[in-house]
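We store chain and fold; example below:
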Amino acid sequence: MPLIRDLVQADYSVVDELLYSNHLGDGRFYDPEGLDVVVAELSGSVVGVAEFQLHCDFGHDEGREAHPGEQTFVLTMAVAHAARRGGVGRALLAEIARRAQEAGHTFLALVPQDGSDAADRQAFVQACGFTLYGPAGPGVGLPGLGDSRREGHGCHRR
């Protein structure tokens, strides 16, 4: 089982490479300013990362009155190719969900990326015990994956 911990500055270059290898970063310089970030470690090596905003009013400011106020919003999640299907992603999501619940949040926004493996990402979230909501109910649920620049989706724990 991976160790999930907060990001430290010594992790920046590894996280930058991990994001870049998953087509989620530019590979130039990692700057987590303004984000909450956790990493997954196996045998002393960082093999996963999740960027999120623990306190986020996603959707409410856009006029989505159904959103109950502050939520947690996962912006990015990446796992090293060699560490996939070993519980790393599930452990990252579980840690974010735990922190969200401790903060009193019952919802977490998610925005799956488009692409040939979008259905796999959605299936992963469902396999972790969450129910997805479509674009008609964006930004609700706990927990999710996503990119803050796009219309939201959400999920809710079963």
